[in-house]
Amino acid sequence: MKKQTPDERKKNFNEVAFGLSEEEALKESSRCISCKKAKCSMNCPVEIDIPGFISAIKNKDFGKAIRIIKEKNNLPGVCGRVCPQENQCEGACILNAKKAPINIGGLERFVADWELRNTASAANHRPLASKQAKVAVIGSGPAGLTCAGDLARMGYRVTVFEALHVAGGVLMYGIPEFRLPKEIVQKEVRYLESLGVEIKTNFIVGKTSLLKDLFEQGYKAVFAGTGAGLPSFMKIPGENLNRVYSSNELLTRVNLMKAYLFPEYDTPVNIGKKVAVIGGGNTAMDSARVSLRLGAEKVYIVYRRTENEMPARKEERENAKEEGVEFRMLTLPVKISGDENGFVKSMECVKMELGEPDDSGRRRPVAIKGSEFTMDVDTVIVAVGQSPNPVFLKATPELALDKWSKIIIDPKTQASNIKGVYAGGDATEGDDTVIAAMGAGKRAAKAISEYLKNEN
Hints:
It contains 18 helices and 16 strands. The chain is of the alpha/beta class. The strands form four sheets. It has a five-stranded parallel β-sheet with strand order 3-2-1-4-16. Strand 7, helix 14 and strand 8 (about 300) form a beta-alpha-beta unit. Helix 2 (about 20-30) packs across helix 4 (about 50-60) and helix 13 packs across helix 14 (about 280-295). The protein starts with 5 loop residues before the first helix and ends with a helix.
């Protein structure tokens, strides 16, 4: 897929990849051999009929293609951009034998973008005859939106309660504009509203209302997709200095509060000239690339393992390197030092080597004695993971949690220990992918429907 050049894109927040043209989409779709046992669909967490929608593209029936996708996926414009297809549908493509899998993500994005330009031909999934039962969805991230959309198509009356002032959850506050334009997210939110989903923003379940209040208000089931917005820190000296950010704070300010458009939006971010981003996931890559666009001259990814162990997508690592981000592997920060005014001036680190595998299956990093050194940086961004949002959990003590404060659920149904309460996404899995959260939302919607039928 064609992209902005690195020198161009690191100076703006416009989308990096341009998407496939119609000619390119037709050419790419013609490569699909339409397997009878489509491993691509089997490896799709939301079970899209991938050969079916690609066949429709081949025939230039883009309306049919988007209808096929939306039978299973409420957020195709999102998934076409940020889903890790290389580990799922594309990773299972039989043409991987020739190292040339179909660009399924690019084709999904093409069809979704075609629909947005041709609203008269939009996929029109109206709700079935209303079942009247009311369902509450807490959180409007990918899990909540997916659950809400599926339930609405089944005919349930669904209300989504969102704590922030705009719907979208992590799609709005966590993923930069240059990877996922917010206009795309909002258009897909409006599609769900067209199905009958009601969205209430500025509504914090756990503050504005409690879980028991929702049941008293007539909701027969509740899905909690409250996300993982509580940042984790390393607990090293100096993390309270000025210009030490959690990745969550940085990205929320930039993505949701439009800090990159200061002074048009009054939400500035104080970024120095030399930035160290601690972590190796997609959030770390996003934080590093955002820092460049905010004016940093040097940006480092500091990671305690090697690149082979990084959880970030290969595409995001490559994009970061192309834009000039430097990777400091096998490096562990141990202290952040500040100047007389309380601002970061340097970061002390130790070199690591890989030992035996740990619980994650990755080789455990071990400090090398006498390898301490100092990095000259004036901003540190901590991107070492996030925990479930605590507000709803603290207000609902009867909800069973594991030792990491994640909601305990039945993995087949997403049911919690409370009757009629289901959960999914980062609230149950920790900091996971968008498509994994969507898969949880779909499972929950099916289970909620079965539960309500049995209750009736």
